[in-house]
Amino acid sequence: MMYLFKAICLCLGFAVPALLVAQPLSGDALFTNADNGMVQLSPTADYVTSYYRNDKNHYLDLFELSTNKSVSRVALGNDNVLDAYTWLNDSQLYLSVLVDNQYVNFVGQLKNKTVELSLIKTKGYLVHILPEQPGKVMFAKRRRARSTSYDLYIIDIDRLVKGDFAQAYQVEHDASNVSDYRYDANLNRIITSETDDEEKTFSIKYASLKDGKWHNVITFEDNEFSFKVLYFLTEQTIAVLTNKDSDKVLLREFNINDQTFGEVIYQHPKYDITSAGFDNNGGLDYVTYKQYGLSQKLYFEKSKARFNERLAKTFFNQEAYVIDYIEKKKISLLYVNGSSEPGQYFVYNQHTDQAKRLFVSYPDLQGMSFSPSKQMAVKTTDGVEIEAFLTLAQDIDHSTLLVMPHGGPIGIQESDRFNKEVQYYASRGFSVLRVNFRGSSGFGKAFSEQGVGEFGRLIEQDIMSAVNQVMQSHEFKYMCAIGASYGGYSAAMLAIKHPQLYDCVVGAFGVYDLPLLFNASNYRSGKEYHDYLAKTVGNFNDGMMDVSPLYLFDKLKAPILLIAGREDNIADFEHSNRFKYILRRNNHSVETMFYRDTGHGHSTWYGDRHEAAITSEFLLRTLKLKMPEPGILSEKSKLALAYDFAIIADGFSADARIDNDEQKALLYYQKAADYGHPRANFNLGSYYHSGEQVALNMDKAVQYYQKSAELGFAKAYARLGRMYMEGEHLAQDWGLALSHLSKAQKLDDSPFNNIRLARFYCIAPGKYKNVARCIELMELKQYEERSKAVFRSAAKEVSKTLVWILADADLTQEELELVQQFAMASFQLTEVDVTFENVADGIFEYRESKKFGGHGEYRLVAPGAQVNTYGKNKKLHIGVLFDLDVPGIDGSTVRTAVAARWSMTTADGRRKYLQHKFLYGPPVGEWSMLYEVGDIEETATMTLEIFDFNQTRIYFDEYELSPAS
User: Fold this and answer.
1) Report field, pTM of the whole predicted structure over 0.85
2) Is residue 508 within a helix (H) or strand (E), and if so which, with residue range?
3) Residue 15 pLDDT class (50, 70, 90 cuts)
């Protein structure tokens, strides 16, 4: 691909943002997926397609180059994930979408600038697009339901959509247990995987399309390791994906003749490689991997040197490379990023020698400034040149250097690409130093091998060479070591070896007991794994204790924060747990954040945000650094810092992975509220509303709700609207209720806000009542397109709201019939007239069945309404068991419903609603409306009401609660 261009033309009207004042970057906007990903050119180069995501849905986006705008967005569902897609020809695409953990395939047809999806009902997957056979594809068809075996066909695309394989060409083979197919376009070979259940072996075979003769590539014990053939580099050398002798799946050479593994072609430091592509010369073109469940594609620049030089000059200090190219149109798709550029896409026209920007990767980061990295050439103590990257803090500057060793340590490389973690800390006033010490990849095999076995020795010496060089030209008041995985180990060792320099340490998912690496489990004690470890740590020896932080704890002087995943199978959790134990036993300042259900790093962006927030807060608090005053910050800056405190509070309050501590949650919500966090103000209002952790104070609760609403938090408007609607603490005011509920719905048209506004329109008096609008807002069909989770949430809110309507609304007969018709359609009901029979009410206790597998039952233990005599260990329920009957009709053939609610009135006259339950189904068997009573702390009256569909209260009872004497 030999071409040049003279200038960049930003023809879409996007101005290159001027350098702005540095400000803290929001973790919410920073640690997230790009809005646009998996970007491709259409074969005609008329369109760019991308995987576009927002809060409401996931889409396949069709962007027209001639008009510079999106012309079609195909909704894929917010619960679903676009796993892969490819253009089959000029007008058709193939999509593979992950739906409920199953792959569902579609063909997209481009018509009139719109993509229409057709479901491929036949289970299977695309093997190859066969460009030499227009209109046909190679498709692997599953042999039968739930089978892991497939047959291979060459089939017309239109017939594939219809599931018509009658005229398809079947590729014959003798395999009875083929588990997958791949097609090698270089040598036109089919590749299969086969299992032998009797021998418990797994084999890879290939056959040429010309003669159909199968040849064995490799046979090994099933589940011994993964092995997937991707590409024939030569007749006998193939590129494979394997985790043989490695923790992660990587791309590696394999020689068929001598059955040996060769050089590693590519490995990702954090993720398994899922696929790869090669150019016509056998060079690596791209690799793919999954990041937080989404497919990511990393391309490698294969253009000529002169084009690369021009890209480098045009996008100075940035990385620019071609990610797609249409030869017949001479159109290229470029991706550009850099240390201070999160990413943007350009299309380059070779004929006009111009490039225009299409869109950016992270729109929410537009207008923000980033700290550029300074590239450094460092001479080590033994005269070797290594490279390092220094990113300086800007306007907010705490005069603190964070020395951040990378993970690995072998085969990983720091780069000058955009680094979210680095930018997060730099925007908060910390300078960051990263070093490509010996052992890092990208500098030749000898350089990489020099780091083997140098834990705590040569690697840390290289890092300190970079530190010393930085200190010659920059002055910092504080210095901390911070890192993850090997970086966590290295951070601790740097502070141990240089206690006079380092003021604090953060070690995440680290290794602190090197001997433990070799015997943490049976898996870790085998020879093969020891051989694998030897390529990184070196051979096991007694000297490892001399470079293990666990055994050098007394030399560590700096406070340390240990972060770990309790399910970490790479740096076992025991490393961090032992280190914590020995440090605490010796009264060393150590803090911990041990996440449950977490492995070697986080599986969600939320985890990364939380870790960054607790780390930043630890640094500020430990070094006694002053936070910027809210008054001197922009609104975005204040919210960024507020978000840090809020996510820490969320962790202590609502995150199942973190031990709950409501006092800490309250403290950090208050800090977040001080910086104007809308939800933190709302949560503080909820504390005062419930009287949890603070004294009950409804006036203060309302003040916080009002502040949260002023800051634009929809839920605060919804809460105030409900209080005005119900007359809770605030005087009932239907006008103010409508105003607040409408604002909530306008800010966030979630099912919760829509349906709460619906309740208003059904139960409000006089001019405010609008039953038609009420039903319109509750219609469930409008939520089906969003996601299954949203639909379930909507159905739940509708069922609760129907209870409110049947209990409180003053409806005409015509309005009541509209509500009945809506409920019957929404919940598949057939009858609304019921009678209440065989009532048993009072205090119940649940008793397990004595028979294995039998069902327990609720037994009446006290038929009265006084609840005050049972101990803490008893699970008591109050309420009623009853039968429903539809007069004159066989109950097994119908579906009906009743509406029930629990409320509580305290001794001071406050009334709050505890539960609204819409009970529906066939009127057979025993129905129940029970409420579990925990420890009774105050005198109160519990009230149960049950209504039928004619708004008749068919049951009422009160239960007097008082603390046990």
Assistant:
1) no
2) strand 504-508
3) very low
